[in-house]
Amino acid sequence: MNIPSDPEALRYDRDLTREELGRTVQALSDKLDVPGRTRERLHRGARSAQDNADRAAQVVKQIPLPAIGVTAAGALAAVWLLRRKRS
């Protein structure tokens, strides 16, 4: 390890080391903050679920109403046929 002899270089090296140490301490603190990390994960999951729900709502809004009716009628017919076969 080279230790600078110039006072200005020493101060610069000291300041740089302090910054690196500060980042390291912050990273360790973040890793040890389990409740905070858990909260962040929950918020991310909630945002993701909300985004998915919004996208699904947009898709449903784009489907024409007759198509929904035909699909529902087909499902009812399938249920009716299955029950009829079992009887």
Give structural notes.
The chain has one domain (7-86). The protein is built from 3 helices and no strands. It has helices at residues 7-32, 34-62, 65-86. The longest helix has 29 residues, at 34-62. The relative contact order is 0.04. The model has no long low-confidence stretch (mean pLDDT 89).
The fraction of residues assigned to DSSP E strands is under 5%
Instruction: Give the terminus-to-terminus CA distance.
Output: 88 Å
The sequence of SSEs as H and E is: HHH
- Outline the low-pLDDT stretches: none
Helix content: over 70%
Number of helices: 3
What Rg do the Cα atoms give?
A: 31 Å
Structural class by SSE content = mainly alpha
> Largest beta sheet, briefly?
none
Number of domains: 1
Shape: rod-shaped
Q: Find the count of extended strands (DSSP E, 2+ residues).
A: 0
Question: Roughly what is the average pLDDT, rounded to an integer?
Answer: 89
